[in-house]
Specification:
Blueprint lengths: L12 E4 L4 H12 L4 E5 L5 H4 L1 H6 L6 E5 L9 H4 L4 E4 L12 H22 L5 E5 L11 H5 L19 H18 L5 E7 L1 E3 L9 H11 L11 E6 H13 L5 E5 L2 E4 H12 L12 H7 L7 H5 L11 H7 L6 H14 L4
Parallel strand pairs: 1-2, 1-4, 2-3, 4-5, 5-6, 6-9, 7-8
Antiparallel strand pairs: 8-10
Helix pairs in contact: 1-9, 5-7, 8-14, 10-14
The structure holds NADP nicotinamide-adenine-dinucleotide phosphate (NAP).
Length: 353
């Protein structure tokens, strides 16, 4: 996907959680475009988390500066935001399985973090636009919800109304955070808010911190967990490089408004497996068949997926309308096969499969 958007010489931009899987690609694209980037991370002194940003920043026209900031620290983002025109707020905890304390580990950092970042934007006169990294999980809670919408696919008018702190707490945290962001955007008139709502992000990472859920799915497929059959589950996939481009455009296109579903294609686990088999051969135990819903429900807890989640997602089609992002932001999405193959190859190279 090429960027046709032209930009004037500019103020720095802020990326929160700049070391993350998605944000690292965004930082790279911004630096390539000549932006000076302020990136917040939790610990600038931790090379395991920030070391890859050295390579991301090397020989780029823009300059990268790192700042320490925690989502739970009310005043933590002011210094990094000073002088910035665009704020990309990507930082949020992403834990889908084995959540120990949903309120403390997910909801509080996501919601309070969004409040803290937007309050900092209210205190920073240079800020004109905030791009929020939301998710499709703020659009829907479970695939079963689609039936209740009366539509044949989810679009930007839909909101997740079925998740709560016990059922799909990550989805709940993203929904509350996005709702709060729209509320706070309406409470002032200096900056405007643009939300991007990516699906399951796949594709190569620039650091070691590739998306936990994407990696788990790929490893389960490659390591033979589903060798005797996979549940009938669908994933709405988008490439990490396209998500970065979507953010960039959401930040730079003056007319950009509202939410943007970033999804390329929805594929079932079996379809993902068949793409992997056609590229990597029969040497890996990729599944060839689906298991019944009854078996899928029995096996779910072993994959640390609660039965209630399996019940409302296995066997239900998951469909998204990505037309608004394509029209309004001009994004073209890579085929999911490219993201899947590139991602799996990286896991092989890293010895994770
Ligand atoms: P990631 O690599 O885990 O990045 C998450 C970022 O948030 C990291 O920089 C992390 O910092 C930061 N963070 C978490 N808790 C924090 C806290 N208390 N204070 C400060 N920073 C904190 O995951 P990602 O996939 O890039 O996710 C980035 C954004 O995309 C998130 O908002 C996520 O909800 C959204 N998203 C992701 C996907 C996906 O499939 N990956 C799909 C849709 C939306 P540390 O490195 O210090 O932990």
């Amino acid at each position: 996907m090429s960027t046709q958007v032209t930009v004037r010489r500019r103020r720095p931009v802020l990326v929160t959680g700049g070391n993350g899987y998605v944000a690292s690609w965004l930082v790279r694209r911004l630096l390539e475009r000549g932006f000076d980037v302020h990136a917040t991370v939790r610990d600038t002194g931790d090379p395991a988390r920030t070391g890859h940003l050295g390579a991301v920043a090397r020989r780029r026209p823009g300059r990268l500066s790192l700042f320490d900031a925690d989502l739970l620290d009310a005043g933590g983002f002011d210094r990094a935001m000073a002088g910035c025109r665009i704020v990309f707020h990507t930082a949020s905890p992403l834990i889908v399985r084995d959540v120990v304390d949903p309120e403390g580990d997910l909801v509080q950092p996501a919601v309070r973090g969004t409040r803290h970042v937007l309050e900092a934007a209210n205190r920073t006169p240079s800020v004109r636009r905030v791009v929020l990294t939301s998710s499709i999980v703020a659009v829907y809670g479970d695939a079963a919800d689609l039936e209740e919408t009366g539509a044949d696919r989810f679009d930007e008018s839909h909101w997740n109304s079925t998740s709560n702190v016990r059922h799909q707490p990550y989805s709940y945290s993203k929904t509350l955070a996005e709702r709060l962001a729209w509320e706070m955007a309406e409470g002032q008139d200096r900056w405007d808010l643009v939300a991007v709502n990516p699906g399951l992000v796949l594709g190569p990472g620039l650091g070691r911190n590739t998306s936990a859920e994407g990696v788990l799915i790929m490893r389960d497929l490659g390591n033979g967990y589903y060798r005797f059959g996979a549940p009938e589950l669908e994933y709405a996939i988008v490439d990490v490089r396209d998500v970065a481009e979507g953010h960039l455009r959401a930040g730079l296109i003056p007319e950009a408004r509202g939410r943007h579903i970033l999804v390329s294609e929805t594929l079932s686990l079996i379809e993902i497996a068949s793409i992997l088999r056609s590229h990597f051969g029969d040497g890996y135990p990729f599944p060839r068949q689906t298991v019944s819903k009854v078996v899928a429900l029995m096996l779910a807890p072993r994959r640390r997926i609660p039965q209630a989640v399996a019940r409302r997602n296995v066997g239900y089609p998951l469909r998204f309308d990505n037309r608004y992002a394509r029209d309004a932001l001009g994004v073209t999405f890579r085929p999911a096969a490219e993201s899947i193959v590139d991602h799996f190859r990286q896991l092989l190279d890293d010895g994770l499969v």
